[in-house]
Design brief:
Bound molecules: S-adenosyl-L-homocysteine, iron/sulfur cluster, FE3-S4 cluster
CATH architecture of the largest domain: 3-Layer(aba) Sandwich
Number of helices: 14
Largest sheet: 6 strands, parallel
CATH superfamily of the largest domain: Methylthiotransferase, N-terminal domain
Number of strands: 19
Structural class: alpha/beta
Oligomer: single chain
CATH topology of the largest domain: Rossmann fold
CATH class of the largest domain: Alpha Beta
Length: 450
Amino acid sequence: MKKNSVYIETYGCQMNVADSEIVMGILGNNGYELTQQIKKADVILLNTCSIRDNAEQRIYGRLGNLKKLKSSRPDMLIGILGCMAERLRKDLIEDKKIVDIVVGPDEYRRLPEFIDSAFNGEKGIGVKLSRTETYDDIIPYREDGLQAWISVMRGCDKFCTFCVVPFTRGRERSRELKSIIEEINLLSSRGFKEVTLLGQNVNSYSDAENDFADLLAACAEVDRNLRIRFTTSHPQDLSEKLLQTIAEHPNICKYIHLPVQSGSNRILEAMNRTYTVEHYLTIIDKARELMPNVSFSTDIISGFPSETYEDHLATLDIMQKVRYDGAYMFKYSPREGTKAYKMEDDVSEDVKAKRLQEIITLQQQISYEINQSLIGKEEIILVEGNSKKSDLFLSGRTDSNKIVVFPKSENISEGDYVKVKINRATSATLFGDLVESLYSLDDSPSSIAV
Ligand code: SAH
Ligand code: SF4
Ligand code: F3S
């Protein structure tokens, strides 16, 4: 019997989640089957992340766990995919004897071949990066559901000095608009209600004829009841045309993830972020002028080399100015091979931690205040199912990606759009009562951005 059951575990960003679906698509076409039971798997794949040291440590810990399983079933294969495969290559196979396969993000088409050779006792290694691979023609394996991720581009050319992504994912390249639209059509006909377009830097999308604004508009037109989200936007390439496109389409979510990283121009320059605080704030103002209810989220790094207390205060200051709905906040982690790795990591661990805590506390307060200000307002929600805590409640998400919990009602089911009036809020969740059930997002453009 052919050993063909594969178990895959995914770490890191949504690009990796989307890639795991591509990997399963490729393996499915080659006679492999997905299993949820690790103990029964013939092949265990870890799709890994290298963004910070703790992400890699987690994988090493996991490999430690898997050692036992492997010793009880020596014929089983363990494979490392994704960004760590690219970054560490042969080291992984040489140092971690239990690893049989190492395949980077641009070599997934050859995975069946690498698995075969590993079953024959040879290690399977494929870590070449490509300038053209987009997996355009691969149909990702997806369970039925409401929400899907779609990679619209791969790689990154920005070379922020702290970041490994350009090294682990290679140069930037975009998929053809046509193939993305076909994929969305397919998802719409399967009953999906939301797609998130993914790229490290979606606003530099370009397929020769179309830019990212064209792509978003085309996606929005596929199905007016399919919400379109996108991430991540880089402040340098966020054009007015793009903002106008977001504003014009009721089903494009008025929510922009716009990582600022730091509020200090000196640090932004050292990071090679290619914008200033002033330019960043101009984009925020412009977006709010066009869409009064637009929401922003961000990424922030604390303790980048040479960051002073004043630089840190400047970060707190920009957070107060923008008032993000949410933020992903990290301590700087030096990554070998990046430019910043050569700079002295001179902010002590204690200071990084203390600054990070101040950033987190401020963000929680801002999120709480923003949520409180929504009490009494009406929001359009895509119902996702029972709330986590009780079957008597349903939960869904607003246009700005906030979770709303409200009492169950007979005619409402998963995948419906409903209008809910908010009556209570914490920093993480909104609670409300059903106002009405909507059947189409187009029916109520004015209430989408409440
Ligand atoms: N392409 C996206 C971000 C990808 S990585 C963008 O440019 O915004 C996600 C986040 O991880 C980054 O925004 C950054 O805040 C954080 N990050 C990346 N490298 C890091 C490092 N070396 N140390 C700490 N955080 C890092
Ligand atoms: Fe990394 Fe910068 Fe590219 Fe984002 S834009 S992936 S932070 S190099
Ligand atoms: Fe991690 Fe690679 Fe994504 S380093 S954040 S999995 S692009």
